[in-house]
Amino acid sequence: MRPPAAAAPAPAPPAEARRPRFQRQLPQQRRAALIAATIECLKRYGHDGLSIRTISAQAGVSVGLINHHFPNKDELVAGAFRHFNRELVDGLKAAAARPATPAARLRAFLEASFSPPNLDADVLAVWVVFWGLYRHSRPIQRVQRETYRDYVQLMRTLLGDILGKPGGGARGRGRAVNLRLAAIGLTALIDGLWLEWCLEPGGFRPREAVAICEGWVEGLQRRAAGWNSP
């Protein structure tokens, strides 16, 4: 795979964005606005969008106000990471909640995984920044553990429903389908296909990515059925 292209230098924010907008807001509203401004800066400027001055200009507030709501830049970016990830995962959960059957729920989840807003160059730009910070930022590491655990649990539930074993693994002949490992494996497959598509959109179609994942799950079902045969 080709590495992502280097981010272009951040242009100066428009004049209207540089003028502070002195609007009184509740603390949670102000924090939400600062997180939204941070995400927008990362989408526009990549790593250059991590500048507190760039974020303050985008939000239309002073640097001091950002420092008032977040103890340091790492905590602000970690808050943006948590919010960004939660929005994406909530969209996947909503898509998977609508169908009536386990197979249809999994398909809806996969189709949402390979549809906008997930398949978006701006989304990849934000993730690249978060990944770059992971090794050296404890707040980012903490949020990554939380969000990854929740995502894998969602995947585990979907696979458990497919296998008819929501509380554990499909068992038989002294062997079992380990749902935790299966969820990790499918998560890695989805992530890999998503990244490959973002780097080279012409390589395959989103529906082909869905078919690859469904084929992987069908193989899991066949193994589980074979183990359960008398």
Give the secondary structure arrangement, pairings included.
Blueprint: H1 15-18, H2 27-45, H3 52-59, H4 63-69, H5 73-97, H6 102-113, H7 121-134, H8 138-163, E1 171-172, E2 175-176, H9 179-199, H10 206-228
Antiparallel strand pairs: 1-2
Helix pairs in contact: 2-3, 2-5, 2-7, 5-6, 5-8, 6-8, 6-10, 8-9, 9-10
Task: Explain what this protein looks like in three dimensions.
- The model is unreliable at 1-7 and 167-174 (pLDDT under 50).
- This protein is 69% helix and 2% strand.
- The chain is elongated and about 65 Å long.
- It is built from ten helices and two strands.
- With 230 residues, it is an all-alpha fold.
- The longest helix has 26 residues, at 138-163.
- It has two domains: 1-70, Arc Repressor Mutant, subunit A (Orthogonal Bundle); 73-228, Tetracycline Repressor, domain 2.
- Helix 2 (27-45) packs across helix 5, helix 5 (73-97) packs parallel to helix 8 and helix 6 (102-113) packs antiparallel against helix 10 (206-228).
pLDDT averaged over residues: 85
**Oligomerization state:** single chain
Give the number of DSSP strands. 2
> What proportion of the residues form beta strands (DSSP E)?
under 5%
Concise structural overview:
The protein is mainly alpha-helical and 230 residues long. The protein is 69% helix and 2% strand. The protein contains ten helices and two strands; from the N terminus they run H-H-H-H-H-H-H-H-E-E-H-H.
Salient structural properties:
Arc Repressor Mutant, subunit A, two-stranded antiparallel ribbon, mainly alpha, 2 domains, 10 helices, 230 residues, elongated
